[in-house]
Amino acid sequence: MTYLDSDKNKEFIGNGKVNSNGETLEVFLNNYDPSKYQSPCNTVDTLVFTYIEENGQKKLNRLLLIKRANHPSIGMWALPGGFVDFKENLKDAAIRELREETGISDIDAIQVKSYGRYDRDPRTRIITTAFVTLIKEGEQNPNAADDASDAGWFEIHTKELSDNVTRLTLTCKEKEEVIAADIKHEDYEVAGLMATNYSTIEKIGLAADHGEIILETYNMIKDAVY
Q: Do the domain assignments include residue 108?
């Protein structure tokens, strides 16, 4: 039995020739062992930003975080997210996990990028894909459930400590929570294309590399929103 059904497999038949082992696509797929290679696990995380309107313009206001109810990083604040089911599209997984952990639904989201440093999670090799959405302030009220013990809206503040280090501070006044991370960012060029590498120097109260994901996404969208 193959991963996809026979009709879907026809899309991958190529030029219809056999491979070096004399196998057609059908025979190759029936003989294929997906456990031959150790594969990473895939997760998704969703950044839900709120906005307010001032003088007819949208302005970023707060970010939704959940408090982790289980290991790793138990008791720390994180982006809502979780594992992708085996036959589930990434965005579907992001919206599902957001709903399961916070009760927020009826939203759409845009894929930002993937984060895959090998040591970002102690359980196993986990690659996460971040999504972002923007909703009007007060439009949705989160209720923690599933892997989240709490949920709250955090104000976002950034301060440049040096040319390439930013302090990200997230404050939830309702819960009297303040969490922060000092994040190094280095621009680099590849064949004329510019990009920025983010890495955490120090953090307080934030899980894993979520400070990096938050700061990078915030920098991506803040100018577009303002």
A: yes
